[in-house]
Amino acid sequence: MNDAPPPPTGLAIELEPLVTRVLAPNASPYTFTGTQTHLVGTTDLAIIDPGPADEAHHAALLRTIAGRPVRAIVITHHHRDHSPGARRLAHETGAPIMGAAPFALSDDGPRADAAFDADYAPDRVLAEGERVSGEGWALEAIATPGHTSNHLAFALSETGALFSGDHVMGWATSVVSPPDGDMGDYMASLEKLLGRGDRVYYPGHGLEIERPQRLVRGLLGHRKQREGQILRLLGEGVGTVPRMVERMYVGLDRRLLPAAERSVLAHLIDLDCRALVRADGEAWSIVSS
Questions:
Q1: Domain 225-286, what fold?
Q2: I need a surface site. Which of 8, 34, 85, 112 has the fewest CB within 10 A?
Q3: Helix segments in the chain, DSSP class H
Q4: Which residues contact 252 (CB under 8 A, 6 or more apart)?
Q5: What confidence tens digit (pLDDT) does each residue in 236-247 have?
Q6: Mean pLDDT over all residues of the chain?
Q7: pLDDT of res. 18
Q8: Which is the CATH superfamily of the domain at 13-220?
């Protein structure tokens, strides 16, 4: 991963001739230095993940747009640090909101990741392979569920770049929080990206990823290692999520413990779907062969 210092918030940084990044001022333990909005194009634009409904970030985006036509406001997923800024931006630019499908979560369980944007309502949902284009650029939707059920990445065919949202980030592994997050889907989406030849990833958080295939292989290995840890702990009689997290995440910032618990639960649900473990209330155990 790139260890260079982050750019200041609100500053337009050209990453390559067709791509400009603006960092939102919403740094936190879950967003790292903040949400990164990417502008694609030169004479006309797509705005990827306009971020939170923040006055300073909105003003920075308008300065960067500088009156150019906005063809689309493109959303990777429906978390509150990615999509709420779309509504005001759409009103002021006239651009349609498109990308990830809307989602209504019926479960009221605990949340570790950014809250859902309950008001997210795209004008157009993009399915796998659908494209949005402008002068000299085209973005193709790549379905990458796992972090959320509706997560999309977007490939910029002209340069070999992939806007990876929160599926692959430049600073940490993605939180997979059931019921909307699904570990089996997340792993399958990583395998899908591993089979592609994208040159660089521009994530929603953290700096650009210049050797993406290497990172994706590392993420797959990391998740398989976590799965192995869980099975070993179950074999030792450690059968509840909090006890597993205590053993697996030594020294973790306590503010991130809820996220760790949700990811361990996601692994357990995936193992249960594969008939390797079973639940008895809040206790888990290995299925005897």
A1: Arc Repressor Mutant, subunit A (1.10.10)
A2: 8
A3: 55-65, 85-93, 183-194, 212-235, 241-248, 257-273
A4: 245, 260
A5: 999 999 999 999
A6: 93
A7: 98
A8: Ribonuclease Z/Hydroxyacylglutathione hydrolase-like (3.60.15.10)
